[in-house]
Design goal:
Helix content is 23%, strand content 29%. Helix 4 crosses helix 5. By secondary structure, the protein is of the alpha/beta class. Strand 18 and strand 19 form a beta hairpin. The strands form five sheets. The protein has a seven-stranded mixed β-sheet with strand order 17-16-15-20-21-23-22, sandwiched between helices. The chain has three domains: 56 residues, OB fold (Dihydrolipoamide Acetyltransferase, E2P) (Beta Barrel); 204 residues, Rossmann fold; 111 residues, OB fold (Dihydrolipoamide Acetyltransferase, E2P), CATH 2.40.50.1070.
């Protein structure tokens, strides 16, 4: 394919855009991505980079702005590696994410018309219950990493996490003399469902004493419940955070994974529970269960069924078992093991085992392992709910499951991370 000329200026009408915030056009039949442009823009562009199958351009002049374009609320837009879509309306952001899921399915020759409209919440900002910042040893401050380099940007405010967490970061940077001698690496803030905040300081130096910082920050912010130091000789802490999903109260160790957007996580859970309710079942499995959020909510919603959770993270399994006991849920048990080795048997309690009729999988971004995909096809549960944080690996796995005898019924994108490129999905399959 002939590449368009790199030195020539082109006037283009942008026809589409991706989740990275890049506009898409074709120039001389070549696909060209231009950062910062929006579908509907008319602009003058030049090409800056040519690859085998596409090119990258830059916008020299915006001639006519798209109806989807808005002024970014964040002054760090275009520099920060977090938000990529805050220059478009919320409505169009949800369309972009739906189209990206459709595109992932189309590439795997799956029926992309089964992708629903994106589910989303009214609030586009203030939703994150966790943020992590890196320490710039030269500038002596914490900040987010730049989009295109390892540079750590100055931190002023983050629209995604709410005012209090931003204020804590600014306070920390203003009082960095309390931490700088201790060789800090990272700063993590986690907010519980009740509004309490844990501030975890990751340090390179062993046996570091952060009591001076702890006293200062807790005096300034009454919402802070704990300020643990995480070091090489103390990789875990007793600090915890709480959540509540559909009447199930969960307590997590502060370092254990949990969803960063509580209300959007409930949308995922409702989609899974609604699918589970479509047909009676007796045995179910929650694979890659983490701290057991899906399994615990299902166990409460369907008290007559038996549930089994599997997760490789030992700390997460301890939290899952403790949460089951705290909520009085005796119809679920958890085991620490690699989900890829699951043999499809659920302990009934009398020494016998039963294969699950309903399975939930919520794998990491890499998707299902080869063994897990093969194991699910051999196990052949009647119904399968696939929760994904990566449409590309989800589409790959769905194609394998469909070729192994499953029918894809629908895929629902959920905008758990507004203004960013990320999107969660729930795919529903049946034998």
């Amino acid at each position: 394919m002939k590449h368009p000329e790199s030195s020539k200026k082109y006037r283009v009408d942008v026809t589409d855009m991706n989740e990275n915030g890049d506009g898409f056009v074709r120039i001389d039949r070549m696909a060209v991505f231009i950062p910062g442009l929006v579908a509907g823009d008319t602009a003058d562009v030049t090409l800056t980079e040519s690859r085998k199958n596409y090119a990258v351009g830059q916008c020299d002049a915006l001639i006519t702005p798209s109806e989807h374009r808005i002024a970014p609320q964040c002054p760090a837009f275009g520099k920060c590696g977090g938000c990529t879509l805050c220059h478009v309306t919320y409505e169009y952001e949800n369309t972009v994410k739906q189209n990206c899921v459709k595109s992932a399915l189309r590439r795997m020759k799956l029926p992309f018309e089964l992708v629903d409209a994106t589910r989303f919440l009214p609030a586009r900002t203030g939703y994150r219950n966790k943020i992590g910042l890196h320490y710039d040893k030269n500038a002596r401050r914490f900040g987010y990493v730049s989009r295109d380099s390892y540079e750590i940007l100055p931190f002023e405010n983050c629209l995604l996490c709410g005012d209090t967490m931003s204020e804590i970061v600014r306070f920390t940077n203003d009082n960095i003399r309390l931490l700088d001698p201790l060789a800090p690496d990272e700063l993590f803030l986690r907010r519980s469902h009740d509004g309490r905040i844990t501030v975890s300081v990751y340090l390179s130096r062993k046996n570091a004493d952060i009591s001076a910082y702890r006293d200062a920050v807790t005096a300034a912010f009454p919402d802070i419940s704990d300020v643990p130091a995480v070091t090489a000789d103390s990789p875990s802490t007793d600090a915890s955070v709480t959540e509540e999903y559909f009447g199930v109260t969960m307590r997590f160790a502060s370092e254990v994974f949990r969803q960063v957007n509580h209300d959007a996580a409930e949308i995922l859970m409702r989609l899974v529970c609604d699918f589970a309710a479509e047909k009676p079942f007796s045995y179910a499995a929650d694979l890659y269960c983490g701290s057991g959020a899906f399994g615990l909510v299902l166990a409460k919603q369907f008290p007559g069924a038996r549930f089994f959770g599997l997760e490789i993270d030992r700390d997460a399994i301890r939290a899952a078992n403790a949460n089951a006991e705290m909520n009085g849920l005796s119809n679920i048990s958890f085991v620490c093991a690699d989900a890829a080795t699951f043999d499809g048997r659920i302990p009934v309690g009398d020494g016998t085992f039963c294969p699950p009729e309903f399975v939930v999988v919520d794998p990491p971004r890499a998707g299902l392992s080869d063994k897990m995909r093969d194991g699910l096809i051999r196990l052949a549960p009647e119904r399968l709910a696939y929760v994904s944080c990566n449409p590309q690996t989800m589409a790959r796995d769905l194609a394998e499951l469909v070729s192994g005898g499953y029918e894809l019924l629908r895929v629902t994108p959920v905008n758990m991370f507004p203004m960013t490129k990320h999107c969660e999905c729930v795919a529903i399959l049946t034998r």
